[in-house]
Amino acid sequence: MNQTTEQRIAAARARMGELREKFIERTQGELQTLRASFAALEAGDPAALDTIVQLAHRMTGTGATLGLEALSERAQEIEKLGEAQRSGSQPDAAARSRLGAAIGALAAELDRTSRAG
């Protein structure tokens, strides 16, 4: 059976909706990892910054691909802040404060996105 253009578009939209839902679910779990990694960073573990940057990078790209621009932008801010601190030494208090605020902004945007979905 041949699908009409409208049917193909509807199927593609439905699939994108499914992918967004899966991404939101996964990101909610990864947010917990981000918070735990941030707590480890605050406790003096500079290696936790790598986990933060990796997770934020993945959220940035996938969020943008799925059309979740605001969520992607919040994750990109975390990624940029983390990248700027990747020197192997512990980020200073001001940098950690900015990073913590960015993680909070991501959490708020994720909450908005999940309620809107």
What this model shows, in words?
The protein has 4 helices and no strands. The chain is an all-alpha fold and 117 residues long. The chain has a single domain (5-116), classed as Four Helix Bundle (Hemerythrin (Met), subunit A) (Up-down Bundle). The protein is elongated, with a radius of gyration of 17 Å. The two termini are 32 Å apart. The mean pLDDT is 93.
Helices and strands in order, then pairings?
Elements (H helix, E strand, L loop, with lengths): L4 H38 L5 H18 L3 H16 L8 H24 L1
Helix pairs in contact: 1-2, 1-4, 2-3, 3-4
Could you give a quick summary of the protein structure above?
The protein is mostly helical and 117 residues long. The chain contains 4 helices and no strands. The longest helix is centred in the first third of the chain and has 38 residues, at 5-42.
Overview features:
117 residues, mainly alpha, single chain, 82% helix, Four Helix Bundle (Hemerythrin (Met), subunit A)
Binned, the helix content reads over 70%
| Averaged pLDDT | 93
Instruction: Name the helix and strand elements from N-terminus to C-terminus, one letter apiece.
Output: HHHH
Shape: elongated
Structural class, by secondary structure, is mainly alpha
- The number of distinct structural domains comes to 1
Largest sheet: none
How many helices in DSSP terms?
4
For the record, give the distance between the C-alpha atoms at the N and C termini, rounded to a whole number: 32 Å
Architecture per CATH nomenclature, i.e. the level-2 architecture = Up-down Bundle
Radius of gyration: 17 Å
Please provide the count of β strands.
0
